[in-house]
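Below is how a single chain appears once it has passed through the pipeline. First comes the sequence as given, then the structure the pipeline wrote out for it. We keep one example in the README because the format questions we get most often are answered faster by looking than by reading.
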Amino acid sequence: MGLAFDAAGLGAYLQEVFAEVANDFVIDRLDEDGITMRLLVDERHLRPGGTISGPSMFGLADVTVYALVLSQLGRKALAVTTNASFDFMRKPVGGTPLVAEGKLLKLGRQLAVGDVLLFSEGDPRPVARSTMTYAIPPER
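Resulting structure:
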């Protein structure tokens, strides 16, 4: 089938549709096997104690699966999260970029399911795992 976007094109599209947060994320790799994204951690992503907040971690996982769906389908900005499961496994390192490794498990006409592992940059042990389901808008 081939990808609808390359990493640069997908990054530009995310900037277009989510300009308010797009600069928080970097696409390091995008290919048929999946995606690697990073959250560029800033003070606003930290919670008391200096660790990365749960909402920031969730945001990276959500954007990662959204990017995977867009990479396959193209300009479908209205694809939305319909289900999310999130397992926190260990404390991420605050002030260090958070890395997401994502892959699509299923891409159907109406639903897409993706899986994401999150890591503190430089540490091979996952800090969290998420599975997300996206609803795909119907063709008009």
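The longest helix spans residues 54-73.

See the next section for the split statistics.
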